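SAMPLE LOG
Freezer: B-3
Tube label: C17
Construct: single chain, 218 aa
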Amino acid sequence: MHRRRRTALAVLAATLVAAPLLSACGNQSHPGAAAVVGGERIEVSVVQARAADVRSAQGSSPEAAQLVNKSGQLNRAKLHGLIFGRVLDRAAADAGVTVTRKEIQEMRKANLAQQGGEERFEAMMLQQRWVAPDQIDADMRQEVQLPKLAAALGADLGTPAGQQVVGEALTKASKALDIDVNPRFGTWDDQKMQLGNYSAPWITQVTEFGPQDSPTGA
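STRUCTURE (predicted):
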């Protein structure tokens, strides 16, 4: 039986939220774009499509009304995820870290086993992370990527010192990407990895999500 634990993302996010405020400004005009990250646009239509996928999945749940009520900042949450994914990609690339398809599938398989099957796993992801079934692999990729980044930096995510090292790498990557957000969605905080006043509801939650050890792959 697996003991309860924080995910790598949850442990790091809790540390970042406690860090001093250092916001990146987002006061430029972005016609049609939700944000510009590293010179590349994230279109509003992309954010809306991802949110629509979640709403569709929520609508098929017996707890539809409750799920919708708890995910009022869904568009902002989806933009946050897209921005953070690019920051993590940049930090990983800077550290020479790559993620294989095999590693993603092993992570997913481990979580399926822990949650008791596909249906329960998808329900947990939808409820706790506002992630639709077709978005799960992207989330699993980050669950593989972050511990590998920590390992490449010689950092232990289970310790405050290790979390600080990884947090500094993410902040460096975030600043390098010169993230500029459409004011409609708020501003991006390089230090906290946070979008406006949005804080993902799962980031400080102790869960049973994820295997005890990060899987390895070729």
